[in-house]
Amino acid sequence: MKRVAIVVQRYAEEITGGAERHARLVAELLARDHEVEILTSCAVDYTRWALHYAPGPDRVGGVAVLRFENTLRNDLGRARVPLVHKLRFKLRRLLRWLPGPLVLRPRGDPEFDGLNFLRRQGPHCAGLFEHLKASHGRYDAVIFYTALYEPAALGVQVWGRRSILVPLLHDEKPVYQPVFHDSFRAAGTILFMTGAERRLASRLYGMDTSSFPIAGGGVETRTTDPQAAGQVLARFGLEPGYLIYVGRVDVAKGCKALIQAFLAHVQIHPASRLVLVGHAVMPIPPDPRIVQTGFVSEADRDALIAGAAALVIPSRYESLSFVLLEAMLLRTPVIANGLCEVLADHIRDSGAGIAYRGARQLQAALGTMSSLSASERQRIGDLGAAYVQSRYTWDRVKAVFDQAIAEVSALPAGPAPAAVLKPG
Q1: Cβ-contact 43, 10 below 8 angstroms
Q2: For residue 211, pLDDT beyond 80
Q3: CB–CB of 152/145 below 8 Å?
Q4: How far is Cα 125 from Cα 131, in angstroms, rounded to an integer?
């Protein structure tokens, strides 16, 4: 049994998606054989990082949690990526033809390097860094989620080689800031979700990432009782065959583009419906063909996915996409944004859906999936289920994490040589 800490920006049972959900599931899995403690902020809402929980000890799902007080988002001014890094992000496809990494090296300037961005973006937990510096005798290994946020980006540098970085990296503007060169090189090992993410890290930071493991994520076998599922659909006034989106309803997740494509789609397919499952942080057009459910239970969510003609994932920034894998296990075809390399890989390798590029292809995909025959839908669904069952099990995930913990716990304690101990 090892003493393991997991650092993550938010931690609560009500956070049901993304990095935080993966961290919680891994924590509960590892707690079977290790002594696990979560180190996190007091926030639930990532848009402001308002203090929701009291600082200090807590427990979530039977796992020990230690919360540290955090500042509000943009506490020292707006979190902005410097222009030079924005330009490199915009020109990244051209820059790939030049030698060297896509991301510039650090210069020791907190603004240029991205330290100021990390502090302002939040959550900034000064007590968490002090705790890490004083805890080399307390933990055998520390796992850091997610590279984009300050607790992991700087915490991994403070803690040093006995660390496991789970970056959940996306090809987006903030990760083009030089500070991440130091974050990725400080870790004892890095666990990627997919091969696409591992390739992206190599392109961005000029590292040979080929030896780092792909942990992926585990997906539980999912089934739905037809009678119970029918009751769920009836509660929302739905008949099978609608299109569905599951997650935060947000412009940044591609939902505005999805809604626009759907409104064009219903001009040709007037009986079609779009179901949005999740909390909305953007205006939704008042159209009776768009059904908003808000937050629903896991069982209701599965029933709604199983009844859909297709799940649509319009986001360009995904590091794994649990909801895609869960939909495949439920034998629901998937439409995914092909500009996201991770999603494109899933679709290509599984044959369980359509990867689109741009509004016209999205509209065409909506039409294709809405018109599938029952036999073709079953064929695609079987391909998706087989893909997930062969690659994404919790037993495999746990074996990868256990091996990483064993390896880094044997390394010397102490911060990385160039650790950033005082965030900007």
Answers
A1: yes
A2: yes
A3: yes
A4: 10
Instruction: Give the chain's end-to-end CA distance (angstroms, integer).
Output: 37
Q: Residues 314, 278: contact at Cβ < 8 Å? A: no
**Which domain does 40 fall in, by range?**
3-217+394-409
- β-bridge partners, 373: none
Residues 189 and 337 in one domain: no
**CA distance to 6, 31, 91, 375, 395, per residue, from 64 (Å):** 10, 10, 44, 48, 22
Residue 422 domain flag: no
Are 402 and 31 in contact by the 8 Å Cβ rule? The answer is no
Residues 306, 401 within the same domain: no
- Whole-prediction pTM value? 0.80
User: What's the rounded Cα separation, in Å, for the pair 417 and 420?
Assistant: 9
If you search the block for the tokens 């919790």, which residue do you land on? 394
Low-confidence winner among 11-20, 318-327, 346-355 (lowest mean pLDDT): 11-20
Bridge partners of 245, per DSSP, are: 276
Is residue 176 assigned to a domain?
Answer: yes
Task: Provide the β-strand partners of residue 353.
Answer: 334
Mapped onto helix, strand or coil, the DSSP state of residue 335 is strand
Quickly state the pLDDT bin for 221 (edges 50, 70, 90): low
